Amino acid sequence: MKLAVIVGSLRNESYNRALAGVLVNRLPSGVTAEMLELADIPFMNEDLESNVPASVRRVANQVAQADGVMILSPEYNRGIPAVTKNIVDWLSRGSTGHPLKGKPVAIGGISSGPIRTMVMQSQLRPVLAHTEAIVMTSPVLALTEGQDNMSASGELSDATAEHIKRYLAAVVQHVQRYEVVT
Ligand SMILES: Cc1cc2nc3c(=O)[nH]c(=O)nc-3n(C[C@H](O)[C@H](O)[C@H](O)COP(=O)(O)O)c2cc1C
Fold first, then answer.
1. Contact, 111 vs 117, CB < 8 A?
2. What gap in Å lies between CA 50 and CA 152, rounded to an integer?
3. Residue numbers of the chain with a pLDDT score lower than 70
4. From the CA of 76, how far away is ligand 1's center (Å)?
5. Looking at ligand 1, which residue's alpha carbon is closest to its atom 20?
6. Alpha helices in 26-157 (DSSP H)
7. What is the CA angle 36-13-113, rounded to 5?
8. Which site from 22, 71, 164, 177 is most exposed, i.e. has the minimal number of CB atoms within 10 Å?
9. 46-to-49, 53, 126 alpha-carbon distances in Å
């Protein structure tokens, strides 16, 4: 099984990228993951769709070839950050082959605040539903940076390590249940 991993932050020291690294390192055997590069993705602009930029085609192909997708994203101003929304918008389009359609997806996030990205996650669900992605419902992965959950460098509390183990087992099960058999 192959997963594509989207991180909705371009920040060098991103907690969400650190979380993605933790998840990838703890995947069960037989599951591989590819981190997608979003720094060179332009803003969605329908004018670009007649000749989709190479960076967008690259990411769309990676998603198309993956059995499932994990999206780890910060929350900005109680909402979905532009980086996250922009790539979802691109991947929702016929011009990119609409690779999110029918794709099993799991979401999660970590923030510096007490809301733990839950407002972002509750907004991202209906957006992804509109793309016809199949989003895992539970368990939720919503962390805050610090000793209770995960440090900036990716050290986990015991409870968070246990939760991540359960989360990843559920992701694998979700992808197995809904992956497209080719
Ligand atoms: C523009 C902006 C708005 C933010 N709004 C929120 C917010 O609504 N909720 C929250 O928990 N954190 C908020 N934060 C703080 C982020 O959780 C924090 O910057 C986090 O480190 C971002 O994730 P990253 O480390 O993966 O880049 C905001 C940060 C920025 C830059």
1. yes
2. 41
3. 181-182
4. 5
5. 111
6. 54-65, 82-91, 118-130
7. 105
8. 177
9. 5, 12, 22
Predicted model pTM: 0.98
Q: Is 162 helix (H, G, I), strand (E, B) or coil?
A: helix
In tens, the pLDDT along 16-42 reads 999 999 999 999 999 999 999 999 999
73 Cβ below 6 A of ligand 1: no
Cross-strand partners of 34: 4
| Amino acid at site 170 | A
Ligand 1: residue of 71, 111, 145, 151 to mutate (most ligand atoms within 8 A of CB) is 111
The answer to whether the CB of 85 falls within 8 A of the CB of 49 is: no
User: What angle is formed at CA 167 by the lines to CA 180 and CA 90, rounded to 5 degrees?
Assistant: 50
> Which of 17, 26, 34 is closest to 73 using CA atoms?
17
Ligand 1 center to 74 CA (angstroms):
6
Q: Which atom of ligand 1 is nearest to the CA of 77?
A: 8
CATH code of the domain occupying 2-178: 3.40.50.360
